[in-house]
Amino acid sequence: MSDVIRMTNVTKKYINQTVLKDISFAVPIGKIVGIVGGNGSGKSTLLRLMSGLSLPTSGSVTVNGETANRRTGKVVSYSSELGSFYPIFTVKEAMRFQASQFADFNLAKADEIMKLMQLDPHMKIKALSKGHRGRLQIVLTLAREAPYILMDEPLSGLDPMVRESIVKGMISYVDLNSQTLIMTSHEVAEIETLIDGFVALKGGSLLRMADVDELHESEGLRITDWMKKTYI
Amino acid sequence: MRQWPAMFIKDFKLTRTVFFIGLVMNVWIAILTLYMGRVADDSLLMFVPIAIAVAIHVAYVPIMVFISLKSEGNHLPLWLSNPQPAFKLLLSKIANGLMMIVISLAFLFALSGLLIVPKFNLIEPYWTDTWRVGLFIFPHIIWISIQLSVWAMVIWALYQCLKLKIGRWSRVAVVGVTILSGGGDALFKTTKLYRLVTEWGGIAYKFPAILSDPIQTYAGEYVYDFMIVVGLFILTAWLVDNKVEG
To answer: Transmembrane region positions (chain B) (predicted)?
Structure first.
């Protein structure tokens, strides 16, 4: 099976620090997967490795059967936690630029999500608040019709009042017949009802990968409760 | 809009402020030239500010490329996740620098020319050689500037590769590599092998009204420099595609 992101015995070190240790799992198309874990557990690094923007120290990461590298961006729509934008652009210009660079960027879909996110298309990005930058990040990431959508903490910076509606809106723009959404979040409770499966990390090691239903059946626990039980 | 033109426009926007500041500085240089023309006894002295400004342009493209790359470094995942191959991303930055240096030099020459016209009688004996020197210098400044910009790219890419591997030592390593490669290049240029490789297709540029000796160049030197630049550019593109992490 080639339509899958596969990690095989992946270890990642930065200078002398081991961030991920011997991680192996695969995520097929058609899933919404949450990567959960405490601070410094390696969630963001794991996502960057899947996107090909980071390279494993040992082991291998493949996307659709090909070794992940920077050019994996063709099939992976990735958004980083800190938000990456060219501040020289307005919201509309940023969308047009993405459309010019990615063949799978759907400008009409981006317009639709932009309206849902209540963003002013003429606003300069450098003038946007942190929350609105987060919304723009969601627009730019979800408007791509790439098979894999990777979002690092997409909910951080969003107002708690609008978070629920934005999360629901986000999911409605993912086509599970042809796409997989993988996201990290500290707000496990808020995404639990939306995700099919989860990858739990602790200290850079894979603690568990399972379907949410499987966890409910085997342990009778929600992810949040299981994490409290396991991590503490 | 197609991929590369959109990338080129984005890269222009990243450095346009510095570009416009440069043009304003050119206006000041032209005003200084006019002033020197009025106060100096030696009519050639009025060319000193222009000559300095033109010479400084060798640093123009590397500065523009470095500013652009530094700006990309602030949001590296965004730049690296672009699906275009690295050579296209890097070429866009060099092309921007090239466009800007051509405009800046042309603007400087044109502005100075306009100011010199009323004083033409003072420089008339040197005029033919003056514009011929200008014609000689113009492409050479641009070429040297592009060579330096490719070196700036290699150093930037090397730093990006090393910073996640050896941390703070990456700066020391990059400085070391720069000194060693610069020294190695200078040393190689003193060898017989270098002369053997490059000293063919001699061209002597004569400017008798300004310089007593002709400037001797070789086609082989241009070919050698071109090959080094292409090699370094390919190395940089490979580093960005395969080793730089976002």
So the answer is: 17-37, 43-69, 90-117, 137-159, 222-240
Q: Which residues from chain A sit within 8 angstroms of residue B245, using beta carbons?
A: 48, 53-55
Q: Computed from CA positions of residues A151, A152, A157, A160, in that sequence, does the dihedral angle turn out positive or negative?
A: positive
- The share of chain B scoring above pLDDT 90, in percent, equals 72
Among partner residues A78, A97, A102, which is closest to B77 by beta-carbon distance?
A: A78
Contacts of B240 in chain A (CB under 8 A): 70
Q: Which is nearest to B64 in space by CA: B103, B12, B117? A: B12
All structural domains of chain A, each given as residue ranges with its CATH number in brackets, are 4-231 (3.40.50.300)
The bridge status of strand A148-152 relative to strand A180-184 is: parallel
Interface of B with A (CB under 8 A): 1-3, 5-7, 10, 13-14, 75-78, 80-86, 164-167, 240-246
Q: Model ipTM?
A: 0.90
- A143 near A98, Cβ under 8 Å? yes
Torsion, Cα of A117, A119, A125, A129 (10° steps): -70
